[in-house]
Design goal:
The complex is a heterodimer. Chain A is mostly helical. Chain A has helices spanning 5-14, 18-24, 48-56, 80-89, 104-115. In chain A, helix 1 packs across helix 5 and helix 3 (48-56) packs across helix 5. The model of chain A is unreliable at 1-44 (pLDDT under 50). By secondary structure, chain B is mainly beta. In chain B, a hairpin with a 3-residue loop joins strand 32 and strand 33 (495-499). Mean pLDDT of chain B is 93; it is low at 1-27. The chains are: A mainly alpha, B mainly beta. Chain A: This is Cytochrome c domain-containing protein. Chain A: It holds the Pfam family Cytochrome_CBB3. Chain A: GO terms for molecular function: electron transfer activity; heme binding; iron ion binding.
């Protein structure tokens, strides 16, 4: 069964950006006067494409359209349940487990990105 | 004779028998390498440290096996490690006829160097939950010996000392909060005087790539050098709070120059790997500035961990071309003491050993376009391509796996040639403007998607070339359809050994490149090859076992034989001359 994209989008909206905000408020111990670098980028915690670029593109090449260290993901025949389970639990020696890192909403955003990939 | 008298005589007889059966060598077996052996140009009977000796030649002075008889080389014995996830990636050590090596999950074996018989083994208990979250895991790339101990790092952030004779733990020191930082240790430690030095993983994570100095006898941490913004000077090279994006792990072992009491170490790239700051990188992007001391070679005082001097090979590295890869080859030329260091970008840097001033820079590989060139007199990057958001055109060369990978080359002091594997490949790249990852967490921080492609001048491939280490002048070259990813060994028998990606170990004439012998080990090589003596006989030991992160790229690039090659297995294969 596939998760409807609408559900994913709804989950995306409610995701708070707390961790980034809290770090943005910490001061630089060196006392630099330049503006914080993270202010230049928009939050992307629920942007599946950007999340994929940061974390998954290391192994799944061309944004998931091509095999690399990991398999090609576009047009995958694996079920949503399988994909979510694999993202959460990983595979020893092949893929890290992201279950404690990403929220369900973030994993949903990643899945939505993967399902939307063309070849 | 009373019972007690008979008992006493019996005990004496047993004692005499014991003295007879334990050879004098074994009874006085050294439990640490001699200083002279560590400082020598050639590893002789032993292979006492990761790079062979502190000179880092990966060169054995043994010549029982030579160009005249290498055709008679055959398997002497093998050892199969349990749980070889991602193959075997380590370089064995040998001391007094005993071979020591590590496997995945930092498992250790001490084996009789002549027979392969197990003397002891050790399996650390690791945080398996943490291991499952790591990308660069659970492989281990090597060990160190000193102070009567064997040292190994773990992916959950510990440095462990084992009694060299028994394998029993002596101490176990937690150096990194790996649960928080994700990263741990995969590289070999380096013993320097009373210290054990080890660098953390990490170019892709928000941590500060520390290098640690630990007291060998006690396990007490004596110093920690932060490769990311570790000094006031360095902090100024990271705009705003961008130092929090981190990177800079010293994930491969450096070496030691006893003449100046200096440890040389290489550091990884900063995170994110691909920066969208473009030509304005000094002021914009996720990490504005030079980002010291990432992608640098640094010289540390081993007693204090203080920085003595450095050279940043790639200021503001925007291409993931670490200085962590590459041995530090210490040679003398024209009265000058030099260090030769290979950078992942495919360039070889030659330094003055006293201050890391550039003596020369030369390219090992043909397909390089991240810069137009590097000034051979100053090391300045000329015509650098600083990337901006979107598709990178033309594709970037070399690819993320580098023009040079992390395993080592070799240098022969006999003929003055430097033997190094180069890789020719490029990649299509799209840079994404992502939010910098500032909080330590189990996330990579790449900032791009990419796809490996062949270079403009032909297929993706590899080569071994024999060159002058200072000028780069090429004497001979051997080409490979698939880039070999293991270390190279040179010997006084005038041989160069290359374990390749398909599983074949080759022996070449060191002067001409003529292939004199080969043997198929049945699976690709990702590890370090060494030579040592046991019972008066020379052995060549090479771990076979495929599955490093670079090796994983080969399936998409080449298909077979890598598609069908077993990944999570391995064997230590030891060769000797047929009797």
């Amino acid at each position: 069964m596939r998760i409807p994209l609408v559900t994913v989008a709804s989950l995306a909206i409610i995701w708070p950006w707390l961790s980034t905000v809290s770090f943005a408020q910490q001061s630089n111990p060196a006392g630099s006067a330049s503006p914080p670098a993270q202010g230049e980028a928009s939050p992307n915690d629920l942007d599946g494409r950007k999340m994929f670029s940061s974390n998954c593109g290391f192994c799944h090449q061309d944004g998931g359209r091509h095999a690399g260290r990991g398999p090609k993901l576009s047009k995958s025949e694996r079920s949503d349940e399988f994909m979510i389970e694999r993202i959460k639990k990983g595979k020893t020696g092949s893929m890290p487990a992201y279950g404690d890192v990403f929220s369900d909403a973030q994993i949903g955003a990643l899945l939505a990105y993967i399902r939307g990939l063309d070849d | 004779m009373t019972f007690h008298e008979r008992y006493a005589v019996g005990c004496a007889a047993v004692a005499v028998a014991a003295l007879v059966t334990v050879s004098p060598t074994r009874a006085q077996a050294p439990t640490q390498p001699q200083e002279a052996a560590l400082n020598a140009e050639a590893a002789q009977n032993d292979w006492p440290t990761y790079h062979g000796t502190y000179k880092s030649y990966h060169y054995s002075g043994l010549d029982q096996i030579n160009t005249g008889n290498v055709k008679n080389l055959e398997v002497a014995w093998m050892h199969f490690p349990e749980r070889a996830t991602r193959g075997i990636q380590s370089t064995p050590l040998a001391l007094d006829g005993v071979l020591y090596y590590s496997g995945s999950y930092s498992r250790i074996w001490a084996l009789d160097g002549a027979t392969g018989k197990t003397i002891w083994s050790y399996t650390p208990e690791l945080d398996e939950d943490l291991v499952s979250k790591q990308t660069h895991s659970p492989y281990n790339r090597g060990i160190a010996i000193g102070h009567g101990n064997l040292y190994v790092g773990t992916v959950d952030g510990r440095l462990i000392a084992l009694d060299l004779k028994t394998g029993k733990p002596v101490w176990d020191t937690k150096l990194l909060d790996s649960k928080k930082m994700t990263v741990g240790f995969t590289g070999a430690p380096l013993v320097v005087k009373d210290k054990v030095i080890i660098g953390a993983q990490g170019g892709e994570w928000p941590h500060r790539g520390p290098i640690f100095g630990v007291e060998g006898k006690t396990g007490a941490k004596k110093w920690e050098f932060l490769t990311v913004a570790g000094t006031e000077e360095a902090m100024k090279t990271w705009g705003g709070d961008s130092w929090r994006t981190g990177g800079g792990g010293g994930w491969m072992p450096g070496t030691y120059d006893p003449e100046s009491n200096t440890v040389w170490w290489g550091t990884a790239n900063p995170a994110p790997l691909y920066d969208w700051g473009g030509p304005d990188w000094k002021k914009s992007g996720p990490r504005p500035g030079e980002n010291l001391y990432t992608t640098s070679v640094i010289a540390l005082d081993p007693d204090t961990g203080k920085l003595k001097f450095y050279h940043q090979e790639l200021p503001h590295d925007a291409w993931d071309f670490d200085s962590s890869v590459g041995e530090f080859v210490m040679i003398e030329r024209g009265g000058k003491k030099l260090v030769v260091h290979a950078n992942k970008s495919g360039y070889i840097f030659v330094y003055d050993r006293s201050n890391a001033k550039i003596e020369n820079v030369w390219p090992l590989v043909k397909n390089i376009n991240f810069v137009k060139s590097i000034d051979p007199k100053t090391g300045e990057l000329i015509g650098r391509r600083d990337l901006t958001e979107g598709k990178v055109d033309p594709p970037l060369c070399p690819a993320i796996a580098g023009g040079i990978s992390w395993n080592s080359g070799a240098y022969s002091p006999k003929n003055g040639l430097f033997y190094r594997i180069g890789q020719e490949w490029c990649m299509e790249l799209t840079v994404e403007k992502t939010t910098p990852v500032l909080e330590p967490m189990a996330q990579l921080n790449l900032g791009a998607t990419f796809k490996f492609i062949p270079p403009p001048d032909g297929p993706a491939r590899g080569h071994l070339s024999a060159r002058d280490p200072v000028t780069g002048a090429k004497k001979w070259e051997v080409n490979y359809k698939y880039p070999p990813l293991a270390s190279v060994l040179a010997t006084a028998g005038n041989l160069v050994f290359v374990p390749d990606a398909e599983g074949v170990v080759h022996a070449y004439n060191a002067d001409t490149g003529e292939e004199l012998w080969s043997r198929n080990n049945g699976m690709g090589h990702n590890a370090g090859i060494i030579s040592y003596m046991a019972g008066g006989k020379q052995y060549i030991a090479v771990p076979a076992g495929w599955g490093s992160l670079v090796a994983d790229e080969f399936v998409a690039l080449y298909g077979e034989p890598f598609k069908s090659m077993s990944k999570n297995t391995g064997a230590l294969v030891v060769f000797a001359l047929r009797q």
